[in-house]
Amino acid sequence: MCGIIGLSHQDDHPFLSKMKGLLFHRGPDDGGEFADSKTGVALAMRRLSIIDLTGGKQPMANEDERVWVVCNGEIYNSPELRTALIEKGHHFMSDHSDTEVLLHLYEDYSTDMLGHLNGMFAFVIYDKTRNILFGARDRMGIKPLYYASKNGRFAYASELKSLLVLPWVSRDICFNSLYHYMSLQFVPAPDSIFSDIKKLAAGHFFVYDLNNKNLKVERYWNLPFKTHSRLGPEEWKEILRNKMEEAVQRWTLSDVPIACSLSGGLDSSSLVGLLAKSGQRHIRTYTLGFEGKDQASYNELPLARKVAEKWGAEHHELVLSPQRLLQDLDKMVWHLDEPYAGGLPSWYIFEFIGRDCKVAMTGTGGDELFGNYGKWRVHEESPLRRRLRVVKDVLKWRNGREMRDATKFPHGYFYHRYFTDAVKDEVVFPSIPETMKCTEGLLEEIWNASNEDDVRNAVAYVDFNMQLPEEFLLMTDRFSMAHSVEARVPFLDHELVEMAFTVPSRIRTKNGDLKYLLREIVSDLLPRELFSAPKRGFILPLPLWTRQELRPRIEHLLGPEKLKKQSIFSRRVWDRIVSPHLEGKRDFTQQVWTLFMFQIWHEKFTGN
Fold it and tell me: Alpha-carbon distance 469 to 475, whole Å?
């Protein structure tokens, strides 16, 4: 795992060292640079050594040094690819580096090489012969890649903060991204929170022509829905179990020990069982719990302990006070790069694992494959129930435009949002031009792009194109890398994902038991106690925090004086949302938290 950086212009080379230094946490084991004085192209990286510890140094070149690469991630089918390339006559200088496979694959297939890769990756290849930069992000968006293209200059990096070092990259806020953040609690690709910086979307690649300064971005993978209705549940259970076993086996490729983040839930428990079944002899499991009387119902420590005992794992537990999170909030915001108001406790599980191991398996993606948290339920409701939901919004916000928007964006409106467009326009952003916004329209557009009449598939499509890569995987990448840990997500092996979405949605999930199919697939791997356990998850005591511990800081960052000086949000934010919530007159916990997390980010990244 690495942090990668690249520049197209000679004048930017003095900034390369600082840009690389900001990514030290992503790769404390090694670093490297390459600069081409003729063209001005420079590549740099920080390395967390996982595969071919001595021979995988980057930037890496082919034999004649006409093709160079920097890569963040792992190619899990690299052993098979290497064998095939050697049979075709390619010569390898490293012992078993997966990065070198990319170079020779590119020589044979150019950009079509992406169809041959199984893994998580963000890489950029510098082709001297064609004088281009070719960059790609994995199908699911597990690894990040930001870029900036302006006035004939091009730069890219694993994290946004590195690009901000360049003097030609401004810190002007992209208000369209901020508008979407207010609804989603994260910033969707391809924009970033800064106007001058973009992020490559999941399953996309770019080609930057160094001669004419032209940038082309294309999609190379999309979530498929090719259902096979002839098969029944029993047949699908066998097929998916085989695919899961193959995926877990692939994703164990490593020259260093692998740990497991074990929550005690179905997904992570399944991974531990599959690892044990695959022949892993020494399994390390790490579980996080929270102390306090209010956390007992969310504490999964006993279940995790049962799973670890079943497989004889070396089990580790860490129990924290929820108050600890408040102490580390600013560090989290810095490492997240962009405004984010979602889940935060996984910061500590990666910090915990990082004391012993460089690689951690996680169950991320299991929910998206088998149930999507039931978010599709509202789309299967009767028109009357859906209308009652709109009436509830109208009464909550006293905003009559909700009715119109629910009709105009029937799917986008009912997809989960923290602020509706109508409320943002009236209360939060009255000065932003109408042409620059519309989150409900964006959701509707992605929904329609699925070309699916089945709402369960359409919801999955939206999640795989938005929330999964730009919220859950962004958080997983930043929090794991903050502690120099490589997080792996075998449920998102693309072969497993593609197979899962050939299963008819009524078999893949059920209304009353969202992940029944997964539970039956792995039933032999789980302790009996896990079958009857309700789904748990640690919930931050945000209503209490926002009115007590965090109140002074909220009053400062969201008070009338700050809002006026900042000139981003309307004064109505204080009058209609923050003040009534702090006084206990209304419960706007999520809205206040969303605003508050942006303000912390804004102060840290802009200095204002």
Answer: 9
Average pLDDT over residues 477-495: 98
Provide CB contacts within 8 A for 58, sequence distance 6+.
2, 4, 32, 43, 45, 47, 69, 70, 71, 99
Q: How far apart are the first and last CA of the chain?
A: 33
Residue 566, CA distances (Å) to 526, 560, 597 in order: 53, 10, 15
Which among 285, 380, 345, 407 has a CA at the least distance from the CA of 538? 345
Asked if residue 592 lies in contact with residue 573, where contact means CB atoms within 8 angstroms, the answer is no
**Per-residue CA distances from 217 to 204, 293, 529, 608 (Å):** 7, 51, 49, 33
Backbone φ, ψ for residue 148 (5° rounding): -135, 135
User: At 420, phi and psi to the nearest 5?
Assistant: -80, 160
What are the chain's domains?
A: 2-219 (3.60.20.10), 224-530 (3.40.50.620), 542-606 (no CATH)
- Three-state DSSP state, 409: coil
Residue (of 325, 379, 308) closest to 545 by Cα position: 325
How far apart are alpha carbons 397 and 412 in whole angstroms?
18
With 90 as the cut, is the pLDDT of residue 292 above it? Answer: no
Q: How far apart are alpha carbons 275 and 273 in whole angstroms?
A: 5
DSSP annotation of 515: T
DSSP, res 338: S
The SS3 assignment for 521 reads helix
Can you read off the two tokens belonging to residue 450?
A: 């699925």
Give strand pairing partners of 122. Answer: 72, 137
**pTM value?**
0.96
321-346 residue pLDDT tens: 888 999 999 999 999 999 999 999 99
